[in-house]
Protein: Glycosyltransferase family 1 protein
Organism: Jeotgalibacillus proteolyticus
Amino acid sequence: MKQEPKRILQVSGAMNRAGTETMLMNLYRRINKKKLQFDFVSYSSEEAHYDQEIEFYGGKIIRLSNPSSVRELVQAIKDNGPYAAVHSHTLFHCGIANTAARIAGIKVRIAHAHTTQDDSQSFSRRMYLSSMRQIINYNSTHLLACSKGAGKYLFGEREIEGTKYSFIPNAINVEAFLEEKNKSEAVKFKEKHGLEGSLILGHIGRFIEAKNHLFLLEVLEFLLKKEPSAKLLLVGDGDEKEKINVKAKEMGIEKSIVFAGLRQDIPVMLQCMDVFVFPSVYEGLGLVLLEAQASGVPCLVSEAIQEEADLGMGLISRRSLSDSTAQWVDEIISIAGKKLLQPYEVSRVFETKEYTVASSIRKLAGYYLEKTGGANEKDINFLI
């Protein structure tokens, strides 16, 4: 008799291209789907970037209408299961997700922290966060985080010292960023967009306030005084994109910016960059920083970036957002063209630091299966 794969319900909101969602897809592509299968809860009526790929691999997109409804999610779990685990990635909404999972009888209920703060600090918001922390910690069997800062924000100081808590490094497919074809494709892209011979600043991320695109414009404006041919390559989409476009025109620097939009060829985009600039106001870890380091690109980041993002490859430099744009520009000029590591050195660092997909699958599979059988090392290795 054919044995069905154990199913895991991932609660992520909507599977659009962003850090957490990309990390999940890195894992999903590699798991042995005859043994383990993912389904995904979406609170969007619109098709998300990864939906078709998920369905191609046999996963379900479960569309729900009300993120605040425990009852709706309980019913969805019962209708689409059975599930070995529910794994929620939706910040303080993890409390609702894991409450529903507990009511539905799910033995493994994971809350996963991916960021260090959100946009609102009002009194009512702080009260909400405090109550939701208690709900998350009570209803979750495991508390995971991509950095200590993210864990402390979502679960609280006391909980990250407890037995429920674990640090799970974000996972990327390192090999994809080491392929030689990325360099030749980057040359073609630069030729097409008039970037040859320019000092190219790069940024990859959603156009939201937290990513601080306005500051990137200020940095570019100052850099152009020293390097008139400099360019800014912006990869991504989001609500703030048009605002940034308009501001660039007001500043008279729009001809020095390439808005590349959403891209699937991120390794190629990174090879186009001389310096990756990441001035986030807050950040859980920054998956794209791992990708930049895998590509050998020097990175200049704000103080909001967690220490765990620096893999010790000599590619991460830091400046405070309170520093002047002149100081940021001087640092950019200083680090542009840093010596790159050899591919085998890059692979060794990622394996040692356990930022590989295989390492993350082994860890997560242990959590997924520990209360349902099959959590021994042999079975876990077979899931990759």
User: Anything to note?
Assistant: DSSP finds 15 helices and 13 strands in the chain. Residues 13 and 380 are 27 Å apart (CA to CA). The radius of gyration is 21 Å.
